[in-house]
Amino acid sequence: MNNHAHPLREQVAIVTGASRGIGRAIAETLARLGASVAINYQHSKEQAEAVAHACQLYGVEAIPVQANVTDGADVARLLETTSLYLGKPDILINNAGIASHSLLIDTSEAEWDQVMEVNLKAAFLCTKAVMPEMIRKRYGRIVNISSIWGMTGGSGETAYSAAKGGLIAFTKALAKEMGPSGITVNAVAPGVIETDMLAGLPQSDKQTLVEETPAGRLGTPQDIASVVAFLTLPSSGFITGQVISPNGGFLT
């Protein structure tokens, strides 16, 4: 490997929720750029193993690591396992998330809590876990996967919008805390992306979303992974506290 073609060589990345969709695309893209990758998953062991294998084809180390990232003890184990087998993480991608499609009046307290835990609390726990070593090294790249609904709000997705909006505020505040330590913190807010989260939508609704997107198509996981990868590069050190939204012009 040469460093020009593999700018993340000798770096270690943790990607949460990486067994499929956007998380998988991010993990494989970071591996292609030379990073060793910890593939975090909660239930999908076989899928995570497949992602790790795909990453290894780029000549890097990659391991699947089971952890519920809403649980502090599991997050500590995720960090410990990554550090043992790959090394201390230089890059953290907080990608784990769940959708919620219901009017607020129909949203239960349990559903609200779950959406907040997976989309927001998990990012807090994982970030706090990797921070001490990043501060010691005076280097780190943290990217939080938010959503356009965290920027503009989505009807029928109040809980999800609130959690993803919270993630944006978390990003901006933490960037100010971490800047003096050489650590960048950014958010990527995808538009409408063709993933499992859209699987339940009727085709007519998908077509409407396509028509509302100036680019004339839905986004792909790779569209998001490319932006995330750019933010993890050593050369992206002056970009921090930003929200970048690859959305095909859906939101301007």
From TrEMBL:
InterPro entries found in the cross-reference section: KR_dom, NAD(P)-bd_dom_sf, Sc_DH/Rdtase_CS, SDR, SDR_fam
GO molecular function terms attached to this record: oxidoreductase activity
Gene3D superfamilies: NAD(P)-binding Rossmann-like Domain
Keywords attached to this entry: Oxidoreductase
Any GO BP annotation: monocarboxylic acid metabolic process
PROSITE patterns associated with the record: ADH_SHORT (PS00061)
Domain Ketoreductase residue range list: 11-191
NCBIfam families xrefs: EF_P_mod_YmfI, PRK07231.1, PRK12826.1-2
Family: Belongs to the short-chain dehydrogenases/reductases (SDR) family.
Protein name: Beta-ketoacyl-ACP reductase
Organism field: Effusibacillus dendaii
